[in-house]
Design brief:
Layout: E1 20-24, H1 29-39, E2 43-48, H2 52-62, E3 66-67, H3 71-75, E4 82-85, H4 92-101, E5 105-108, H5 116-129, E6 133-135, H6 143-153, E7 160-168, H7 188-204, E8 208-217, E9 220-229, E10 235-241, E11 250-254, E12 257-261, E13 270-275, E14 282-287, H8 299-310, H9 321-340
Parallel strand pairs: 1-2, 1-4, 2-3, 4-5, 5-6, 7-10
Antiparallel strand pairs: 7-11, 8-9, 9-10, 11-12, 12-13, 13-14
Helix pairs in contact: 4-5, 5-9, 7-9
Length: 341
């Protein structure tokens, strides 16, 4: 019988409520709102950001009816059900807490905060208020993530042994760019490294940092290589960089086979399963060909978010509050080791 991959288990857009989203920030938010409007019934109804002219242009481009003068005005608006925080990481804590205090559900761009302590504060506030708070780790909600979870649960690659993943790119040479600014949460680990670390955590559970080496340029970590251990005999080798173009792939290896997530692994691409010994492998593959562009896959997390709101959840069943904090704690530890030398 030929080797086959499981069918993805996904939430249908027409099975979830159409929520009204308020957007803080106009950077990555453009990709998210575009995906939201193109592929879901969710709608962005209000936006606010520091630059009034840019915010007005953003609203016109995306058909957002309300441009509000402040974060306070947006989070307290009776027309907003969910607040999407899409500003640089140092602003996440304050803005997420403001939305929670106003009784709004919150989706916070990754990383959720600047540290594990900040993440813990945000998530505890959400739980106490009874609202859903979720880090926007969209990878968790893609169909290929569902396939991977089933492959592992069904034992198709045997006992888990090793995760290898990376995300790195050559950052702009302009040293005034936020990626090179310590005050704006610059550095590879917070901006890109959160992806492979979160991926490893999703596969092998809570991570213990065993070693971290890297480079420091202009006061930020420009690259990092991490070795970690998970449950039992599992381990992870992860890399991130602002100065090297990495493959942006992820692999999960087990005692009976391995799974590869195609580049860029964090977006809707595809998955390959290989079983058997060298030269005698069986291969099965699945591709996600729904979208013309990568970031259209951001729509999947919006649909998942709406489904969790409908179910009355205060945290994602695929990305718990505890795990979100644990991943930030790994980043904290790795940054400290690298930045302090």
């Amino acid at each position: 019988m030929p080797l086959t991959l499981p069918t993805p288990r996904v939430v249908a857009d027409d099975a979830v409520p159409a929520l009204r989203w308020g957007v803080i920030g106009t950077g990555i938010a453009g990709s998210f709102v575009g995906a939201l409007h193109a592929h879901t019934r969710q709608r962005a109804v209000a936006v606010t950001a520091r630059d009034a002219a840019r915010t007005a242009a953003f609203a016109a481009e995306h058909g957002i009816p309300a441009v509000l003068p402040s974060v306070e005005a947006l989070v307290t608006s009776p027309d907003v059900d969910v607040v999407y925080v899409a500003t640089p990481h140092p602003r996440h804590r304050e803005q997420a807490l403001a939305a929670i205090a106003a009784g709004k559900h919150v989706l916070v761009e990754k990383p959720i905060a600047m540290s594990a302590d900040e993440a813990r504060e945000i998530l505890a506030a959400g739980r106490a208020a009874g609202v859903l708070v979720m880090e926007a780790m969209w990878t968790r909600y893609l169909p290929q993530a569902s396939v991977l979870r089933q492959v592992i649960a069904d034992g198709l690659i045997g006992d888990l042994r090793l995760v290898v993943a990376d995300f790195g790119f050559v950052a702009p040479a302009d040293r005034s760019h936020r990626l090179w600014d310590p005050a704006l949460g610059g550095g590879a680990l917070l901006d890109a490294g959160v992806y492979p670390i979160s991926f490893a955590s999703s596969v092998i559970g809570p991570l213990t940092l065993r070693s971290a080496s890297g480079t420091v340029e202009h006061g930020v970590d420009s690259g990092a290589a991490l070795a970690l251990t998970g449950r039992d005999t599992t381990s992870a080798l992860l890399a991130t960089s602002l100065v090297a173009s990495l493959p942006v792939e992820a692999q999960v290896m087990g005692s009976a086979g391995r799974v590869k997530l195609l580049s860029p692994f964090f977006g809707p691409t595809g998955i390959e399963l290989r079983r058997g010994g060298l030269g005698e492998e069986e291969v099965a593959a699945w591709r996600d060909d729904r979208f013309a562009t990568l970031h259209e896959g951001l729509s999947d997390q919006a649909t998942a978010f709406a489904s969790y709101v409908a179910e009355g959840r205060v945290e994602s069943p695929l990305h718990s509050h505890d795990e979100t904090v644990q991943v930030m704690a790994v980043i904290d530890a790795a940054r400290e080791r690298i930045l302090r030398g």
